[in-house]
Amino acid sequence: MQILLINLARRPDRLAFMRSQLDALGLAFERIEAVDGRREDVGPGTDLVTPVEIACALSHHKAWLRLLDSGDSHCLVLEDDVLIAPGAKLLLDNPRGLPRDADIVRLETTLERTLLGFGQRCGLPAHKVHRLHSRQRGTAAYIITRAFAERAVRDLTTFGEPIDDILFVVDSPGHFPSIRYQIRPGLCLQADLYAPARKSLLAASDLDTDRKIRWVPPKPVSRIKTKYSFSKKCLRELNRWWRRSRATANTLHEYVIVGRIWRDVPFIGTVLPAAAAALAEAETLPSCAPASHAMPTDIATKRSTEPDPVRWGPEPRAQGRARFSIRS
User: Fold this and answer.
1) Are 107 and 33 in contact (CB under 8 A)?
2) Which helix (H) or strand (E) holds 24?
3) Which of 2, 73, 93, 131 would be a feasible disulfide site paired with 117, CB 3.0-4.6 Å?
């Protein structure tokens, strides 16, 4: 399968980082020079997207065009700050186990609870591929089909939102419809989610300083206690019973019939020695600069009680990021 690596010209360190991993796995790749939003005119930003995020979307658009020029049926699109597990080679060498109706198959995980359908085998031991039903962030590693690239290149002429919102946030205004699947456990992980590398300049996101943070404003809470008549209280209790019954029925329908279940999507847990060494040798962030997506150092899985400051607010059932520490 063709591998397309998106890399900025001013980040040769990341190119070397990715080359060390792909060479260790025996995987050939082609570099796609990313559009630099800080040095190229990509148009003005909006309330929903910055020029740097527009440039990121245009970089992925270039990768889709390259797939169409190559004549291949599938390709893996990688960003240059991702950790790749060894199992990815087995999947890329034999992609026959991927669903035939899939437009996009996500190989990466953001360590969040995700609404997934029933799993099916994908030809990789201990891994399954699930239909993806909830929003996701990140476009660091995904497989696309030629048919999807043809539609996307034809229909996506402007980018009014970040590329991950367009591809993976169903309720966003500019969402591009597609059939999406998720590999579980994940085979790729962005380096800034890897605990030992949280202070490395190699892993720090280039978009964090330019990304717009959009919060969903909370509903105002009324502190005035209202007194109701007995009949009104009865009606309120009936309505509460009805809402709970409907919610229970919807949950059973999702679990039993449709098969949509909220699951954690962990990383497979294996980091290539070449990647671990490169992250250890890279320059570190200044002590005054906060690390991006800092992770705890203990091995236990934790659930944050604070809302995760991400675009469009947290998931309905996944408020907070599942935090993992991964040992190489």
Assistant:
1) no
2) helix 12-25
3) 131
Q: Quote the crossing angle between the two packed helices 51-70 and 146-155, to the nearest 10°.
A: 130
DSSP state of 48: S
Strand partners, 29: none
Phi, psi of 215 (to 5 degrees): -95, 145
Q: Find which of 212-226, 261-275, 291-305, 307-321 is predicted with most confidence, using mean pLDDT.
A: 261-275
Rounded to whole angstroms, how far apart are CA atoms 17 and 13?
6
With CA atoms as reference, report the closest residue to 40 among 54, 26, 61: 54
Mapped onto helix, strand or coil, the DSSP state of residue 181 is strand
- In 3-state terms the chain splits into helix, strand, coil percentages (rounded to 5) of 30, 20, 50
Predicted local distance difference test score (pLDDT) of residue 249: 84
DSSP letter for 200, please: B
Closest-CA residue to 297 (of 205, 194, 202): 194
Q: How many whole angstroms separate alpha carbon 176 and alpha carbon 167?
A: 6
The answer to whether the Cα torsion of 285, 288, 291, 295 is positive or negative is positive
Q: Residue 314: its pLDDT value, please?
A: 38
**CA-CA distance, 243 to 79, in Å (whole number)?**
44
Contact 111/315 with Cβ under 8 angstroms?
A: no
Tokens of 104: 């996009």
Per DSSP bridges, beta strands 30-33 and 2-7 are parallel
- Give the pair of three-digit tokens for residue 169: 């946030």
Q: What is the pLDDT of residue 306?
A: 37
Question: In angstroms, rounded to a whole number, what is the distance separating the alpha carbons of residues 302 and 93?
Answer: 35
Sequential DSSP letters for 36-47: -TTTS------S
Give the separation between CA 272 and CA 181, rounded to whole angstroms: 25
Neighbours of 90 (CB within 10 A): 18
Closest CA to 196 of 140, 79, 116, 276: 276
Q: What pTM, to 2 d.p., does this model score? A: 0.77
DSSP symbols for 53-82 = HHHHHHHHHHHHHHHHHHT-SEEEEEETTE
CA Rg, the chain, in Å?
21
**319: pLDDT strictly greater than 70:** no
